[in-house]
Amino acid sequence: MATFKHISSKNADYGAAEQYLTFEHDEFTMKPALDEAGRLILREDYRIATMNCGEEDFAVACMRANLRYGKNQKREDVKSHHYIISFDPRDAADNGLTVDRAQELGEKFCAEHFPGHQAIVCTHPDGHNHSGNIHVHIVINSLRIEEVPFLPYMDRPADTKAGCKHRCTDAALRYFKSEVMEMCHREGLYQIDLLNGSKNRVTDREYWAQKKGQAALDKQNAPMIAGGITPRQTKFETNKEKLRQTIRKALATAASFDEFSSLLLREGVTVKESRGRLSYLTPDRTKPITARKLGDDFDKATVLALLTQNAPPPPNRPKPYPNTLPQLKSRHKGKKPQKPPRQTTPCSAWLTGKPSEPRARAWAMTAGRQSTI
């Protein structure tokens, strides 16, 4: 399953990126690993290439371009963008993926999607966790030195001009992920859906917090295990992972949103809704954690769907008899009952009909006379 990750850097030392790619680093502190003599340890196996740098070094070429256009001179400016394409560990054995082939794919991806940028492409045969996943690092200068055609992920005219900077928007990142999926499909490699998110969304910061916490816990439990004592806790869990478990426990029994909120409140977690999105506030925080940072299983749509499934079915009410009033009304719905014809009597004809001719003549003769009664 190939994954795609983006990291923006404000570090003005472009040589640090090249140093990280070519020398061994500590996975927790990210500092260079040193040998007994205090020298940097070169990585055992890697492939590296530069693009749009000419005969100069990557760091020197980037600093010259920044000075030429007067960009990336402030501390808060984003100096470079780091993209990582990690392939599935099974691709090497099952699909014949090699480090050289991954390097070719990385250089092609960089040339197609980051034209006009000074870039360095480096492929490593293994990750920091020694899982055997081949991965490609693409580091580009945020400044564009050549005018390029309008690409699908661009949305401004300045995105094509020389002297302007690269912008990694949400739409651009989504486009890059779709291109990685298409590349894996074309090359016959393992792939997962990178566009629809994941049930548990673990950020890079949470991943490293879990790794460091697990290492500290193992170090703490080592004397107990050596003494034959079974430690109480052997697996470290981050605060976000504990929150995920608390939410899932409440969702397993709650049948309505009010019940779901009350169950979480018993655990000290407050549910908030803003603009149709849920967030969860734990007692040790002042700012709530949004459902987007926890995963797709904790957003409003998924939560309401689970609560609907947990809700008891409505009671089976007996159907009304056909001769009841609602049934009779439904039969005659839309049809007006016809009234029977009115029967005419001499009295009704005298009241409603036109006066007869002798009566009209008598009325005309007596009109205007005073009554003698």
Describe the structure.
With 373 residues, the protein is an alpha+beta fold. It folds into two domains: 3-187, BirA Bifunctional Protein, domain 2, CATH 3.30.930; 204-225 and 235-310, no CATH class. It has helices at 14-22, 58-69, 91-94, 99-113, 170-187, 204-226, 239-253, 257-266, 291-294, 300-310, 325-331, 346-352, 357-365, and strands at residues 3-9, 47-51, 80-86, 117-124, 135-144, 270-274, 277-281, 289-290. The strands form two sheets. Strands 1-3-5-4-2 form a five-stranded antiparallel beta sheet, sandwiched between helices. It has a three-stranded antiparallel beta sheet with strand order 6-7-8. Helix 7 crosses helix 8 (257-266). The longest helix has 23 residues, at 204-226. The N and C termini lie far apart (117 Å). The relative contact order is 0.09.
